[in-house]
Write a structure and sequence with these properties.
This protein has a domain at 19-198 and 255-268: Acetylglutamate kinase-like (Carbamate kinase), CATH 3.40.1160.10. 41% of the residues lie in helices and 28% in strands. The protein contains 10 helices and 15 strands. The protein has helices at 2-19, 31-34, 36-51, 63-72, 88-112, 163-170, 193-203, 230-238, 246-258, 274-280; strands spanning 23-28, 55-60, 78-80, 83-85, 117-121, 128-138, 144-160, 174-178, 180-182, 188-190, 208-213, 219-220, 223-224, 263-268, 286-290. The strands form 5 sheets. It has a 7-stranded mixed β-sheet with strand order 5-8-2-1-11-14-15, with helices on both faces. It is globular, with a radius of gyration of 19 Å. 43% of the residues are buried.
Length: 294
């Protein structure tokens, strides 16, 4: 009904006004990436954000596509405590899939819906520099040893140089970033997409960091919670109410908030048009974590 449409637009108006000209960094992955209709919804949402004056930056994953090509090429994967070891052969596949196939598919989707997207990796314009990431594993005697994960990396402190992103903004383009960085020797590093998105958000002093996931958000006692501040999140981590796969996501959000990002969102990417619902409606579709400061 026309009246309902007007109501929706009026509900969105204060959010459009508040976020006009602001940067929103979005991690795209999970079911939203694998489902064609959800991917189309995502592309439409991104284009609409740009048309109402918001500056979207996309960072994407691609784990399932990487797994499939590794299997097809009969490259065996090795894991340490659930972390994939990325040797040189696997790194070639990672870069091929992320920078080639997946990145260009997302760029094409956004452009097809009327946007102006440009694909790049952390290696382009020296956008992202990192170093090898090692995990600490406890030995039987209680001491710890560092285990290498091959070409798996972490972003260095001040490792994001947003110059190329700002140049793209000025020309009206939407950056779509594959999470591949370079080390001091110029070698490629495989970076967790959530980590890359958080680092990019921090470097841009983004208004929002939004992580699309396959969960309704942070759940405490089987209930999705929202409107959290960093101190509350840390208490949930200490009590182990936040654990497992959600832990690195909330830590990524906390890091971005500590570096100047105003709010972080962990939302359900399985919901059609989740981005618009989270940004432009009062109820949202996930968990909001914010400092409450401007």
């Amino acid at each position: 009904m026309p009246e309902q449409r007007v109501k929706v637009l009026l509900e969105a108006l204060p959010y459009i006004r508040n976020f006009f000209g602001k940067t929103v960094v979005i991690k795209f992955g999970g079911a939203a990436m694998k489902d064609h209709e959800l991917s189309q919804d995502f592309a439409k949402d991104v284009v609409l954000l740009q048309y109402v004056g918001i500056r979207p930056v996309i960072v994407h994953g691609g784990g399932p596509q990487i797994n499939q090509l590794l299997d097809d090429l009969k490259i065996q994967s090795h894991f340490v405590d659930g972390h994939r070891v990325t040797d040189d052969a696997a790194m070639e596949v990672v870069e091929m899939v992320l920078a080639g196939r997946v990145n260009k598919e997302i760029v094409n989707l956004i452009n097809h819906e009327g946007g102006k997207a440009v694909g790049l990796t952390g290696k382009d314009g020296i956008l992202a520099k990192g170093s090898l990431y090692k995990i600490k594993k406890e030995k039987p005697d209680g001491s710890y040893e560092e285990i290498s994960l091959g070409r798996v990396g972490q972003i260095d402190s001040d490792g994001i140089n947003p110059t190329i992103l700002n140049a793209l903004y000025e020309k009206g383009y939407i950056p779509v970033i594959a999470p591949v960085a370079t080390d001091n020797e110029g070698k490629s590093l495989n970076i967790n997409a959530d980590t890359m998105a958080g680092a990019v958000a921090a470097s841009l002093n983004a208004e929002k960091l939004i992580l699309l996931t396959d969960t309704p958000g942070v759940k405490i006692q089987d209930q999705t919670v929202t409107g959290l501040n960093p101190e509350e999140v840390k208490k949930y981590i200490a009590s182990k109410e936040i654990s497992g796969g959600m832990l690195p996501k909330v830590n990524c959000c906390l890091n971005a908030l500590s570096e100047g990002t105003h709010s972080a969102h962990i939302i359900d990417g399985r919901v059609p048009h989740a981005l618009l619902l989270e940004i432009f409606t009062d109820a949202g579709v996930g968990t909001l974590i914010t400092t409450g400061e401007k």
